[in-house]
């Protein structure tokens, strides 16, 4: 039996998860994407549902089945992910923002397929910054909501970068993922993370994404228990 949350300890809680990676169109057939598979986000959604929560997952290009009782909202682009998260945020008690959201998108997407012979030897695509969805949601959070961000970093300063995001984005916790380490990161069933909160940090050694998800949910329980009523 798990600690604070218990098996059905999240009954009555509404949880919004974002998962996967957004794709930004270049033309009718091509996109700029990233390597996120959605496994971590879906593991979080399944774990929250098993604890009894009502779970909605905004899934960007995830080719995985969701656990029973998990509502899936499928999206492709950062703009679509933002619209879906905006629509579901006010009703949620816990936000787990695991999606890899594109930081830039092609400024213009061609409605037709680009032909290489029309483009010459080199193709330059002007990219435009996308809005930071999580920062936007945090700016309108209400008391009682718990917000968790995810940070994919590389190198020795990974945890410092994650802690900076905790403050800059106004979050309760950031799950820092050193994607340079073997067994951590993209398209693998395991992960190794450091969960950073305002009161400290917890390292979770290499484990299945399901086990990592349980550690994240335990941190949410601790944050919510410590929060002023
Ligand atoms: N995020 C977001 N909207 C974006 C970019 C990121 O909501 N346009 C969210 C991610 O879902 C994640 C958190 O912000 O929960 C941190 O994402 P990350 O890519 O690690 O950080 P960035 O702030 O984008 O900074 P950088 O990529 O430069 O490290
Ligand atoms: Ca980013």
From TrEMBL:
Keywords: Decarboxylase, Flavoprotein, FMN, Ligase, Lyase, Magnesium, Metal-binding, Multifunctional enzyme. Residues 10-221 form the DNA/pantothenate metabolism flavoprotein C-terminal domain. It comes from the Bacteria. It catalyses: (R)-4'-phosphopantothenate + L-cysteine + CTP = N-[(R)-4-phosphopantothenoyl]-L-cysteine + CMP + diphosphate + H(+); N-[(R)-4-phosphopantothenoyl]-L-cysteine + H(+) = (R)-4'-phosphopantetheine + CO2. Binds 1 FMN per subunit. Pathway: Cofactor biosynthesis; coenzyme A biosynthesis; CoA from (R)-pantothenate: step 3/5; Cofactor biosynthesis; coenzyme A biosynthesis; CoA from (R)-pantothenate: step 2/5. The keyword Nucleus does not apply. Catalyzes two steps in the biosynthesis of coenzyme A. In the first step cysteine is conjugated to 4'-phosphopantothenate to form 4-phosphopantothenoylcysteine, in the latter compound is decarboxylated to form 4'-phosphopantotheine. This is Coenzyme A biosynthesis bifunctional protein CoaBC. It comes from Capillimicrobium parvum. The lineage of its organism: Bacteria, Bacillati, Actinomycetota, Thermoleophilia, Solirubrobacterales. The gene is coaBC.
């Amino acid at each position: 039996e798990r600690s604070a949350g218990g098996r059905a300890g999240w009954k009555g809680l509404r949880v919004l998860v974002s998962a996967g990676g957004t794709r930004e169109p270049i033309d009718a057939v091509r996109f700029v994407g990233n390597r996120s598979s959605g496994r971590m986000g879906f593991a979080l959604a399944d774990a929250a549902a098993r604890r009894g929560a009502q779970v909605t997952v905004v899934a960007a290009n995830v080719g995985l089945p969701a656990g029973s009782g998990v509502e899936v909202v499928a999206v492709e682009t950062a703009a679509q992910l933002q619209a879906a998260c905006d629509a579901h945020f006010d009703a949620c008690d816990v936000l787990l923002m695991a999606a890899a959201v594109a930081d830039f998108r092609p400024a213009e997407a061609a409605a037709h397929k680009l032909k290489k012979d029309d483009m010459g030897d080199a193709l330059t695509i002007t990219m435009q910054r996308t809005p930071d969805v999580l920062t936007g949601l945090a700016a309108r959070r209400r008391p009682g909501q718990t917000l968790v961000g995810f940070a994919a970093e590389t190198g020795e300063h990974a945890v410092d970068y994650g802690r900076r995001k905790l403050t800059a984005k106004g979050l309760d916790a950031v799950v820092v993922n050193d994607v340079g380490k073997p067994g951590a990161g993209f398209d693998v069933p395991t992960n190794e993370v450091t969960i950073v909160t305002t009161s400290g940090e917890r390292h979770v050694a290499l484990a299945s994404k399901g086990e990592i998800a349980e550690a994240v949910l335990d941190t949410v329980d601790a944050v919510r228990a410590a929060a002023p009523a």
